[in-house]
Every structure is written in structure tokens, then in C-alpha cells.
Design goal:
The protein has 218 residues and is an alpha/beta fold. The protein has nine helices and eight strands. The strands form two sheets. Strands 5-4-1-6-7-8 form a six-stranded parallel sheet, with helices on both faces. The termini are close together.
Amino acid sequence: MTHAIVFDLDGTLVDSAPDLHAAANKVLGHFDQAPLALEKVTSFIGNGIPNLVRLARIECGLPEAEEEQMKTLMLDYYSAHPADLSCPYPGVIDALTTLAAAGYKLGVCTNKFWTPSNQILDALKLSHFFDVVIGGDSLPVKKPDPAPLFAAFSELKATTQLYVGDSEVDAETAERAKIPFGLFTRGYRKTPVEELTSSFTFHSFQNLVRSIEQHHAP
């Protein structure tokens, strides 16, 4: 049997909001807009950079005609600076080390595009933990469609499956895929924990391995 865990990236493994915030404000500056607060940009995270740009454009009252240029500028700047300010959440490296040593196959399924996802994993020295990375542009659809999650587990050839994420998008993806879900409660979620369907919740990665043993033992 192959036991596999697939993780979301932004707000789950990595606190990437500071770099997304910096990139978004760089783009807005190009259009002579005042910078947005970190909390506001963080609230836009979860459905990929194109959606983040769309929400930032609407927030600033910019015309829809500017959106394609905004997306291009955002992707260009963010690709050049994917991990200047980002960092893994405390305990992530130890948890991944423990899970890999226990024989779990590990993967990432994110709505962030594949290239910047791998740039971040490389920059933060996390890439070696993962046998597969599915990005928001890896398939014609993205989360909460379950297809990207199915693709990740298919690559891992998993017989037991667990998805770990932080957001409404992740919870819906797992529910639609009928795959057990562990909810990290310190990420970018906007909905109360009790309103999201999960197999278990955890507040720190120091507790993740224990939670898996208690609620999702192979």
C-alpha cells in the first residue's frame, strides 16, 4: 500500500502573502494607485494570481481593460521575486521530514501556477520532499474542481489519501473529491472553522503528525 498526503501551498505550507502583497502593490503603483494593505491582499489569495489581480483591480476601481496588462506585470514581477519575503510556517520542515521518513508519499496541489510554485519550493528548500507538484495551470481546470487533486494522487499511485489545506477552496475540493481533509487553521481562510468540512483541524505543524496518527492512521 502507498500512503500519500497532498498539501496546498499558499497559506498551508508557506506564508506567501508578503511576496504576493509586494507584487500586487508593484503592479498598482504602475497604474498610479495607492498600495493596498497586507490584510486586503491576503483576503484575495486562494484562487490563483489571475483572480487576485481581478480582485485588486476591482478594489481600486480600475477598468476591466487594464486587467490583462495587470496580470502580465504581476506574473513577471512575482516570477522574479517569488520568495523574497515568504517562509515556511513553523514546524513545516520537521513535519515533512517525519512524514517522509514514515514512508508517506508527498505532493502539492495549488492554484498558483506551476512555475512560481516550484520556484518557491526550490527557494525555500522544500522541493525534495515532493514527488509531484500540480499547479493552477497544470490542467484545464483548477481547484475547487477535484481534477487537480485526483491528478496529484494519481501521480503518487496512492492507495490511502489525505489532503491538507487552509481555505474554503481546499475544503470544497476535498469534499467534491470525497477525500479526507486536514484543515490548517492559521492560513488564509475567511470562513469560521466550524463551517468547513474536515476530518480534523490543526493549529500548528508541530501537531500535524499527531493529528494524522489520531484521525487518519493508515
